[in-house]
Amino acid sequence: MLWKAIKLGVLSTAGAAILGVGLFGADLLSYVHSSFHSVSLAVKESIPVEFQIRRARDLLDETGPEMQKNIRLIAEEEVDIATLRGDITQANPSLDAEKVRVKALRDDLASSQSVFTVGDFSYTRPQLTQELAERFANYKEAQVSLHQKQQLLENRQSALAAANQAMQIASDQRAGLQSEIDALEARYRLVQATAVGTDVQVDNTKLAQAEKVVGDVRRQLAISEHMLAEEAKFAHAMPPDAIDEKDLLTQVDAQLSASPAVVVTEAANSK
């Protein structure tokens, strides 16, 4: 039964395609594309402006939690960087002190003595050699560790600066879109009060989509305002006043006989 239904559907589709080719020939794809475009445009134009403005607000609101999450990540990174900077600050004096101790052991071992006294301890030459080797190895490891921390600090500071810049750009863009949506809503209310039923088209998602929505709304509201202005102009057109010929000639003669005005240009002032 299922196979028969599938077979019938395939045959119906094939039949419709053959009929379309027979009627429209090579222009079939063009007709299909035009029909789809017309349907899409009709659906888009049927969406109320108020709904589109609400959609733009919702898209903008959806960016709020993400921005809050990024603000928290930036705050956490700032705390971690401060901790890392403190570790480096503490490590520098310790490394300098260890360098002094290694140099002192090295100077002792460079002498010809066989027994050495370091603090409260006495060392034979082999023992002092072993002590110097261990301290020198630790010193080199501490140097490498400190260098790695310094490099990590620089990288994290650069990343933090880039994140702060990106957040500032996103915040400015979000604030600008918020203001523009408010302005568009005010314009829409004004148009709605002037002519009930006026429609406007909008479209799209998140900050990028909201920006496109704002652009579409702006254009459609401008069209609506111009249409209302045109309607008002034709509805209230008044016949021009009759021109008094003598009065016109008198005004022209008076204007032409007047002294020409002195125009002071910016270039003349600069001299």
Please describe what this structure looks like.
With 271 residues, this protein is mainly alpha-helical. The chain is built from seven helices and two strands, in the order αααββαααα. The protein has helices at 2-24, 28-45, 49-109, 125-194, 206-235, 245-257, 266-270; strands at 115-118, 121-124. A two-stranded antiparallel sheet has the order 1-2. A hairpin with a 2-residue loop joins β1 (115-118) and β2. α3 (49-109) packs antiparallel against α4 (125-194). The chain is elongated and about 130 Å long. It starts with a helix and ends with a helix. The relative contact order is 0.09. The model is unreliable at 200-204 and 261-271 (pLDDT under 50).
In short:
By secondary structure, the protein is mainly alpha-helical.
Which features does this protein show?
single chain; 271 residues; mainly alpha; elongated
